[in-house]
Description:
The chain has helices at 16-27, 64-80, 105-113, 123-136, 176-189, 238-245, 314-325, 384-395, 422-432, 438-448, 452-456, 475-484, 490-497, 506-524, and strands at 6-12, 32-35, 51-52, 85-94, 146-149, 165-174, 193-195, 198-205, 210-216, 222-232, 254-265, 273-277, 283-289, 293-297, 301-302, 339-348, 362-367, 373-378, 468-470, 473-474. By secondary structure, it is α+β, with helices and mostly antiparallel strands.
Amino acid sequence: MTDTPFTDLFIIGGGINGCGIARDAAGRGLSVTLAEMNDLASATSSASTKLFHGGLRYLEYFEFRLVREALIEREVLLKAMPHISWPMRFVLPFHKDMRFDSETPTSKLLTTFMPWMKGRRPAWLIRLGLFLYDSLGKRGILPGTAKLDLAADPAGRPLKDKFKTAFEYSDCWIEDARLVVLNARDAQARGAEILTRTKVLSAERRADHWVITLQDQASGDTQQRRAKMLVNAGGPWVADVLHQKLGQNSRENIRLVRGSHIVVPKLFDHGRCYFFQGTDGRIIFAIPYEEDFTLIGTTDADHPDPETAPECTAAEQDYLIDFASGYFNQPLSRDDIVWTYSGVRPLYDDGASSATAATREYVLTLDQAQAPLLNVFGGKITTYRKLAEAALAKIGEVFPQLPADWTAGIALPGGDFAVADVEKLQGKLAADYPFLSPYGTRRLIRAYGSEAWEVLGDAKSAADLGQDFGATITARELDWAIGREWVRTGDDYLWRRTKLGLRLDEAQRAAVDAYIQGKASQLAA
Length: 525
């Protein structure tokens, strides 16, 4: 046992919460090991709606603390990762038929004091919500709310004629899976050990440390690690880890809520998003996606258990199609869908009556009965950094005299340039590598930022980048992803590090997978 590696912190889970905590902890000088049983961001953290947003609809649930924290975080995060996050404007069309969920606190309040307003979401209420949205958070980069005349504004062209007016506000896009990988890379650069495809079989709790048994998912080999403190950031598996792997009793639990999305060919030519309100009180987004597509989502449905793979059901597809078709001139059908994805959000179980109403707040519980255990319940991608800071405050009870919070304002790998300089960076890359296509240049900066030069290296021609797999994918980029970003399969690269699977046919995707697995097996040998 004395030869078993010992670390200060052992983190279970390679989603955004686990990797965010690993980065923050490693940056404060703690020794950290993180184990993820699959690929990084292989579950919830790659299946979001891909927004850094305050959560406009959460105001109807009076979640002011959560919304304010998220609104302030948008620009903190944007400045730290301007390659994978960027400002977007959201168009909220208004019509007098708008309704909202009759179970929200706001709806109940209106029904009590203005019974004639029952079920309606009037324009003054939307303006009030947007005023709060602008006021609760600090804005330095993102513009405030505006009112649009849809008869004159290009945003009105794709919409049905009944929509005459809209409100426009700001939030941010985020490449969610890349966010996770960049946090893991920065954690590793600061000394953390990141173990992907490594399953925690069990963790034995001692008086002053944990003994963790791990299994390599490829070889089946097992090993043990010791740690002074354990962090359970298992996402959808957090309760399973707590009760089954760790053998702990706890009344804390999560509610698994499935969110599904569809992707269709591009429905409009401008770069703004739409925020649509349904007659059932729910909302969905229609978002420009990967230049040539539109992303539509999300749904909210209770999900049975983490072992049941989430899928966008036929009913959910029809729901999203019908919802969007109620707004767009161009009706949609299932034949338009080119891809679907679905993820399970592990929300803290607050006893809410519906999946939509379940809180997006995070809850951290510290158990120091023996060796310390921190459990992470809930959370949303926009507040991952603040969650990590809150986790380190708890961890500081075990490791006193930790350095202060440090991650605000510190760029993630590739993000060391100004938000306004993205086009300048693209121009420089095009000048340095004139053989790149305009799309390839844009894509590489959006994926790698200032590290794009490291990816391309000393290449003087397209031939120097090695095999061309289509959609601007080259062997040199795949080698980088394998060596620097834990890529081990085609899906890791095509559907998580990028979304280039949308642009390849089945044979091309198979060729990418074969190349990656061949290279990865050489590394493992």
